[in-house]
Amino acid sequence: xxxxxxxxxxxxxxxxxxxxxxxxxxxxxxxxxxxxxxxxxxxxxxxxxxxxxxxxxxxxxxxxxxxxxxxxxxxxxxxxxxxxxxxxxxxxxxxxxxxxxxxxxxxxxxxxxxxxxxxxxxxxxxxxxxxxxxxxxxxxxxxxxxxxxxxxxxxxxxxxxxxxxxxxxxxxxxxxxxxxxxxxxxxxxxxxxxxxxxxxxxxxxxxxxxxxxxxxxxxxxxxxxxxxxxxxxxxxxxxxxxxxxxxxxxxxxxxxxxxxxxxxxxxxxxxxxxxxxxxxxxxxxxxxxxxxxxxxxxxxxxxxxxxxxxxxxxxxxxxxxxxxxxxxxxxxxxxxxxxxxxxxxxxxxxxxxxxxxxxxxxxxxxxxxxxxxxxxxxxxxxxxxxxxxxxxxxxxxxxxxxxxxxxxxxxxxxxxxxxxxxxxxxxxxxxxxxxxxxxxxxxxxxxxxxxxxxxxxxxxxxxxxxxxxxxxxxxxxxxxxxxxxxxxxxxxxxxxxxxxxxxxxxxxxxxxxxxxxxxxxxxxxxxxxxxxxxxxxxxxxxxxxxxxxxxxxxxxxxxxxxxxxxxxxxxxxxxxxxxxxxxxxxxxxxxxxxxxxxxxxxxxxxxxxxxxxxxxxxxxxxxxxxxxxxxxxxxxxxxxxxxxxxxxxxxxxxxxxxxxxxxxxxxxxxxxxxxxxxxxxxxxxxxxxxxxxxxxxxxxxxxxxxxxxxxxxxxxxxxxxxxxxxxxxxxxxxxxxxxxxxxxxxxxxxxxxxxxxxxxxxxxxxxxxxxxxxxxxxxxxxxxxxxxxxxxxxxxxxxxx
Amino acid sequence: xxxxxxxxxxxxxxxxxxxxxxxxxxxxxxxxxxxxxxxxxxxxxxxxxxxxxxxxxxxxxxxxxxxxxxxxxxxxxxxxxxxxxxxxxxxxxxxxxxxxxxxxxxxxxxxxxxxxxxxxxxxxxxxxxxxxxxxxxxx
Lengths: 801, 139
Fold this sequence. Notes:
The structure holds two protein chains of two kinds. By secondary structure, chain A is mainly alpha-helical. Chain A is about 70% helix and about 0% strand. Chain A has a domain at about 325-550. Chain A has a two-stranded antiparallel sheet. Chain B has one domain (about 5-140). Chain B starts with a helix and ends with a helix.
């Protein structure tokens, strides 16, 4: 019986407290259902020896990505000649929204990176997750993500860009949470997925607002048109809100401090996902957006300082964090943050050096970071661990992986003759050319680079050449060729472009600089040997400092763990925010959903009256000119009936009497309708009144007597509310009567109901013919209401008796 | 409610109410009435029956589940709307057929509008009875 009374509480009253628990699921357990596979909860650990294949899901996406990459490669010729390719489809022309795409240098750079790395990552995944029971799903998510990302970097319409932006958010949520049903790590995967979704989603909302403001200010939603008249945006009074909102979206997506915490957590995803989303592509979407809108938004002090400070803080903070980690993947995650900070830093400026440095570093970083992530995946698969303290001596058993890692790491560390060296030289040149604080910026870049060199050593030198720190969970052996293809190709590209930078110069760097600054002439030359100059000196200083840091990195790690441990923990604050939200949701649910009918009625009526009162007051429509002239005795009788009925309702102690009195009020109103010759309405009113009295009387049999002992008298409050509502309605009616009535509709129906609808009763003709679709909607609602009410009553009955 | 007077009176009243409800339904297009009003009156008849003789008897007299009646009413209204749609007009456009129409004689008008109105009648009747019966059984 105890149980049943609780269930009954839902239907009627009182035991409604538990609805406070109906708060939103913020822990991400809901995500579990999204990912859950009913028949198989056994988890496939990545094992390259498994004979099973993934079938078409394995190779089809690779072919698609390769085909796309080849197609984009055909654009290199036209784009390097300075052409801009554009194609547009109408989407919602009335809103100025079209599905338009544009390929210029900036877009093409991203398109090639995304499709190229995408093909390699998809090939890699096929081996990495060979025989995984959900590989088809994985491939679908990853391919959808790639397509969304390609759309994002080629969209030429603010709204289209935003749609693709959100598609990447959703697909990345699915990818981060891919391991949601794993027993050990599932909870973490779900939490990380939800965290990434909420942080980037919140930023995206701000971004949408910013983009709409921008479109309205510029008078067009086409990015190419907005960028062509950048001064309109810059000189607008809305410039500041636009920049703040757009940067909120870009900074959350690109994980700038203080929104950085989701990115290291997102490493819960399978390694190929981390390589693709969280190093090469998605996190760069924020950077891409800043670059895309650079012509319209940059060039102000606000832009300069916001990006400089955010970028510099992120770069240094992330480099320190990177050295503190011992999980190889976490090291790479934080060096990615560092790269994003550096890219942001360069976008603060409008000098040719800074933008050239931006493009070059963008390419360098995508190449070596994706390669290193994939290498870490190989090491993880081969040995069963990613712990830097444990790993060692892998050079003999995994020679190809070692080579690829070494080449990629040399690029990351910035040694000649790799592309990373050129990138680093340009970084220094760019840093020295910045408009804000060259010394400070160059100092930040120097520190970040030195720390990155040390991190490169941790990732790719130590695991291969130093003695192992302990027994490895598995005997290491070389990864299969599809897993090696990615790291090898990406690392070799880094070397190729380093030795022959001209390949990159004309095809990628110059067109991208042109897209940002308007002319390819601003692009600086990429060269391995630029003579003895300040950047070279700084490079040498970096090597010295970086090697020193690597030599002492074990001791440094202990120190950093102590020092950084004292900093505020953003991840824990995130939990506080979520818990705060839950408390707020619980509080407002208990406040509004009390489960007491009386409260619901009061809230509804009060809101209704408040809205009326506010409208009347704002429009100044209060007219107090009642006209009692046309009142005959019959009118007065009806009014008297209504007034007396109302008085009895409010004064009686018996529920039955008050229902009956309410019935008289209803009948009085029906008589008003009859007096003004509206028989249909009067009949309906009478019948509804009768049925309501019957229904309510039946319900009332279960209710306690009014004014039962122990109950607080709330009539004064109700009286006030009633006066408020009544007054509001009266004033509205007076205001309506003060304006002349528009009879056009009435005349139309009077004239046409006979000839067109073969009926003389206008009311019914309107109901079943002229406005039949409204009626259809209404009867559908009536059916739904009846069935719901029936279900509710039945649930109570079965549980209760 | 155990009252012999009410029970005896109900036997006649309910029948009269049902006939009257059909009358109101059919005259609705030209005189006050229609599906809504007809359905309400019909429901009153069965509600009266339920109050006087209990819901068990009222349900037996109705023969069909009231939910079924409401749903079939909705279905009938939908069909009445689909017919003109299939004939190439807009959804719910009235289609008229005058049976036995001749020179000077209008004939018997049959229309999709009539079936739509009957659908409304069934929905209102069924929905109200669904709720009233369930609530009375609660007591």
